[in-house]
Amino acid sequence: MGxxxxxxxxxxxxxxxxxxxxxxxxxxxxxxxxxxxxQAPAIVEAHASAVEGWLFTGIVPYMLSRDAEALTRPAxxxxxxxxxxxxxxxxxxxxxxxxxxxxxxxLSAADVNTTFAEAGLPTAELRTLPYRxxxxxxxxxxxxxxxxxxxxxxxxxxxHEALRDELHVLRLVxxxxxxxxxLRQLMLTAEGQAQEDAQIALGLIEVANEEGLLREATALGGxxxxxxxxxxxxxxxxxxxxxATGGFTGLPMxxxxxxxxxAVRVGFGLGRSAAEAESLARRALARARRIGEVAxxxxxxxxxxxxxxxxxxAPAGAQNLSVIARRVGLSVSTLEKLLEARAAAGEEPLxxxxxxxxxxxxxxxxxxxxxxxxxAGLAERTGNxxxxxxxxxxxxxxxxx
Length: 401
Hints:
There is one protein chain. The protein has helices at residues 11-21, 40-46, 59-67, 83-94, 109-118, 137-146, 157-163, 176-197, 213-219, 238-244, 252-258, 274-291, 321-328, 332-345, 352-359, 363-375; strands at 3-10, 27-34, 53-56, 75-77, 102-106, 127-130, 151-154, 169-171, 200-207, 223-226, 232-237, 264-271, 294-300, 304-307, 350-351, 379-385, 394-399. It has 401 residues and is an alpha/beta fold. The strands form four sheets. The chain has a six-stranded mixed sheet with strand order 10-11-9-12-13-14.
């Protein structure tokens, strides 16, 4: 089974980095370029459901995305120190520049000094501006302008564009070796995350009124079945459960079910096999019974039990858009627009044309999205509406997000 890597960077770097990634068997890429590094977080958020990992062409777009809390998948960036910086020095020397007098941004002083020491070059007249969260391209430009008219090494395309007519500027670009190192690191992280997220999570639920249980299971990306003794079995995996519980802290579905039942007890077990998960779920349910009428417990290996708090939340589905987005392959922003369309329609079903108009897409794209939601139990066909022309009838859908 292959892995899809989202490659994020400026226009002229993304294709080269993606091509190196695709040399690796089983790796395909989604090429996502930007005009300015500040656009990286929005790009990541819009395409999160389409990739298993992110590879950034440099540290700046990576840090911007991380600080914006947009990274919900494993991520890595291509490092420009070491061999990449050394090759830039060789190029500058060939161009007749004094490589002992440089103005360098983004790279740390320690990395720069190490590379220069390995090359036997002095560092006394180097100026460095290491990356910090508060650093912007404007600040980097000002840093280079205020110093002596040394040659400039930058990691930012925006800085290169601003200064290339004023100073001798060389923009660092990822070396093939650096890309391969970053990709290897990313794949190891993504593989570990995938194995962890794929751990089986079984929930045993004791509740008299079954209303809403199916929707809760769907919001957790799982399935629901009858168990023995009137107990219900919810089957999902670690990833969706982790997201829906805020990192295994609170269980929103507990509060929603308690609003319709005097007693609700939930026991989740997380294991590497179905048998292990079921054994842990039984232990969790037994402890939930001892706690009280409304309780939920998650049992892990090594005799670890976590009491999940009952929290007030939005209805199932609306609460867990990130889980649903991952399951159906749509972005969170698309799901939010669908929620707005459902709210505007009230109790009335929506046509494929209305949904296409709301999302700003073609009808065939809207039909594909609705088909995904239908397979996930989040949309239901309620009939057809003649469009009044010779075209195909418009299908009516009721959204259950």
